[in-house]
Design brief:
mainly alpha
Amino acid sequence: MSQRMRPVGLTALAVLNLVVGGSAALFCLCWLAGESNALELAKAWNDAGGGLFYFTMTKAIVGGGLLAASGVGYLQQKKVLGRGLGNAWAILCILSALVYTLVCTMAVTGEVGGGFNTGTILDLVYALLTLVLLNTTFKHDFTR
């Protein structure tokens, strides 16, 4: 019985997801747990941006968890754990970038589009790249 090898690109995407997702979630959790000024900062952001702090932290923790879990799914080549959660993360990332850019920033700056920065661009590029790769190039590699 011959077993198909996992594609190198899918393995690279899995490692990238594990590193980025794990570090994002751990950074946010450690920052919230160890930062003495976290509550003051949260209050200032919420007063200015209607929940911007909690939106950003929740997105980072949930998104990091989805990235890490999908990375494990890529390594195991599982449809739901890999492809499903990878697609879910990409859609969450795109939607949250839109919300952050259009809604939350308007409350802080009074202008639409003020939150569209380098981090938002990197998030969108990686999310779009993930959607394209999962649904075209690696579509048939998820067998279980």
